[in-house]
Amino acid sequence: MKLFGKNHIIISVITFVILFLMNYIGNDLPDKLQRALMTAFAGVVGLTVGLFILNKGRNDKNPPQNFD
């Protein structure tokens, strides 16, 4: 998947919505909006970092030597 491509943005929005709703609906504390926004944003950032690491070595012409 191309980083910051059409598919990445769609999956990021879906991830944000799911995490936000899970945290907003299931929380009874007075600061539930802030917690839900922070958790959803952190989930999207984690997804982006994971995809960046995954795509970093995709087109590597020099793989590590003696890799088992």
Account of the 3D structure:
The chain crosses the membrane at residues 7-25, 37-54. Keywords: Membrane, Transmembrane, Transmembrane helix. The structure is a single chain. This protein is mainly alpha-helical. The relative contact order is 0.15. The longest helix is centred in the middle third of the chain and has 25 residues, at 32-56. The protein starts with 5 loop residues before the first helix and ends in a 12-residue tail after the last helix. It contains two helices and no strands. The chain is elongated.
Quick tags:
mainly alpha; 66% helix; elongated
| Number of helical segments with 4 or more residues | 2
First-last Cα distance: 26 Å
Helix-strand category: mainly alpha
Number of strands: 0
Helicity range: 55-70%
Query: Compute the gyration radius: what is it?
Result: 17 Å
Can you give the mean pLDDT?
85
Transmembrane segments: 7-25, 37-54
Keywords: Membrane, Transmembrane, Transmembrane helix
Itemize the secondary structure elements and their pairings.
Elements: H1 6-25, H2 32-56
